[in-house]
Design goal:
By secondary structure, the chain is an alpha+beta fold. The chain folds into two domains: 159 residues, 3-Layer(aba) Sandwich (Phosphoenolpyruvate Carboxykinase, domain 1), CATH 3.40.449.10; 241 residues, Phosphoenolpyruvate Carboxykinase, domain 3 (Alpha-Beta Complex). The chain contains twelve helices and 29 strands. Strands 11, 12, 13, 20, 21, 24, 27, 28 and 29 form a nine-stranded mixed beta sheet that branches. It has a seven-stranded mixed beta sheet with strand order 1-5-6-7-9-8-4, sandwiched between helices. β6, α4 and β7 form a beta-alpha-beta unit. α1 packs parallel to α3 and α2 runs antiparallel to α4. It is globular and about 70 Å long. This is phosphoenolpyruvate carboxykinase (ATP).
């Protein structure tokens, strides 16, 4: 089998002009030649080639793939002639870390800077678990992922999200396949709250597709005062092992910035002098305008995690007590508790929500298995790994609707209240025989009847629930090797 990107990497390392591990100050200085400085000293860059990921231009090679090999071959000569910054870092900082090498075209120093700041230092070794060659200036756009050699060639995109996920995509799946843990597209946080006179620790992983409020719920501090606390570990990718530890993968964060005005906890991380704003509009006086989406609706920042007031000193969550799947489905209550490990993995693979299409205001359902667009084959391995973990650790799994219950908007403050109530163990439940799960009916003394779909749909509820169930069964039945999950929804 021909590992073409591995061979290309070998030639680049031996014959291309490479500047190894340039200091961040140099990269920041080089970036200032075409970027702007904000009032707080952070760097603001505007992408010229791409402003979002391109799943339609991402190709993964598992075995033989003639088209893949041809695309690499066509770019070969161009790639070898480029000059590069080489950035050696680690995905993760603890027992589940991976050594990575980013070879970034030298004309794009901000990408090398963001990679340096996003991942952990781990020294120079010459041996790597994953390698990415990033050539934004190439004429055509392709993200070529070679699974066997854990190598990626990013062509024609200067969007940092492609470089970041080139490592995290492979790290998540490598952890799974090496039986080191399960890579999950989830945020992690730790509550320390008072229950019946004693302090209780409650570790939670929050899953959700874009637009479901994952970052909002992750950085929320609920106004707790010592000795009660909230600590934020990660906001994107963790590796959950069979002992319940969720290992962090990133030193910092890469959130969308349109929510910054509403998230006081996130603001200092985004405005930190070491932050890098990507495709954020900056006014003449150097003030970022996070609500101006004229450049893109996907404006982001490489934000400094330690600047968040509730940031934990570690990125690793020692013990996971609960998984929370965020969704936006009008048939779902604000909070549901799943009743078995099999039902939990079924909802995990549904990965469902609603999104708004390009046609103004037209919502459409979306399902992404595992809430994870980066899950590589075989997907059944992910499911059985999660099933083992949930079974062995007796983890509670919940579905939280952050959208509408029927046509009634669920306020963000209610979702925040419910998450804190889970930590405090003050939620009252009632069985929903139509859906097969338990519904939160009271939370810390607050009745949830106004948002209960059973009440809102009335006599139509049974037919609405049955229609959704058939839709879910059809979707799960289409996933090879996992058809059995259809009977658990």
């Amino acid at each position: 089998m021909n590992d073409v990107i591995k061979a290309l990497t070998k030639e680049v390392l031996s014959s291309s002009d490479i500047d190894w591990n340039p200091p961040p100050a140099l990269l920041r200085g080089e970036s200032r030649m075409y970027a702007r400085a904000t009032k707080t000293g952070s760097l603001a860059v505007v992408s010229s080639k791409a402003r979002a990921r391109r799943p339609d231009r991402t190709r993964v090679k598992y075995d033989s793939d003639g088209v893949f090999d041809r695309l690499v071959s066509e770019a070969w000569g161009y790639v070898v002639k480029r000059s590069y910054y080489a950035v050696e870092r680690c995905v993760g900082s603890g027992a589940r870390r991976f050594r990575v090498l980013a070879l970034v075209e030298r004309s794009y120093p901000h990408l090398a800077l963001m990679s340096h700041q996003n991942f952990f230092p781990c020294g120079s070794s010459g041996s790597y678990d994953m390698v990415t060659i990033d050539v934004p200036s190439y004429e055509y756009t392709w993200m070529l992922v070679e699974r066997r050699s854990n190598s990626t060639l990013v062509l024609g995109s200067d969007y940092y999200g492609e470089l970041k996920m080139s490592f995290l995509r492979l790290a998540m799946n490598e952890a799974r396949d090496r039986h080191l843990g399960l890579g999950l597209h989830a945020a992690s946080k730790l509550y320390r709250v008072r229950i019946r006179g004693s302090l209780r620790e409650f570790g939670v992983l929050v899953f959700g597709l874009s637009g479901t409020g994952k970052t909002t719920l992750t950085v929320e501090d609920h106004g707790l005062r010592p000795p009660e606390t909230v600590r934020v570990m990660q906001d994107d990718i963790v590796i959950l092992d069979w002992g319940g530890t969720a290992y962090g993968t990133e030193m910092n964060l890469y959130p969308k910035t349109d929510s910054v005005p509403e998230l006081r906890q996130l603001e200092p991380a985004v405005l930190h002098p070491d932050a890098v704003l990507e495709n954020v509009v900056v006014r003449e006086d150097g003030t970022p305008d996070f609500l101006d989406l004229s450049l893109t609706r996907n404006a982001r920042a490489l934000a400094i995690r330690e600047a968040i007031p509730t940031a934990s000193g570690t990125v690793d969550l020692e013990k996971t007590d609960a998984l929370v799947f965020l969704t936006r489905r009008p048939e779902m209550p604000p909070l549901a508790r799943l009743t078995s490990p099999y039902q939990a993995v079924a909802y995990f693979m549904l990965g469902e929500s609603f999104r708004t299409s390009a046609e103004a205001g037209k919502p459409e359902p979306v399902r992404v298995p595992g809430f994870d667009p980066f899950m590589l084959e075989p997907k059944w391995r992910t499911v059985y790994s999660l099933l083992d973990i949930v079974k062995s650790l007796d983890i509670n799994v919940y579905v939280m609707n952050t959208g509408h219950a029927k046509n009634r908007k669920i306020p963000p403050e209610l979702s925040k209240h419910l998450l804190l109530s889970l930590a405090r163990d003050t939620v009252e439940w009632d069985a929903d025989d139509h859906m097969g799960f338990e519904v939160a009916v009271n939370s810390g003394g607050l009745s949830l009847s106004d948002y209960n779909p059973r009440e809102l749909y009335g006599e139509r509820y049974s037919s609405v629930a049955e229609s959704l169930r058939r839709e879910r069964m059809q979707f799960l039945s289409s996933i090879a090797g996992l058809e059995f999950l259809a009977s658990y929804v």
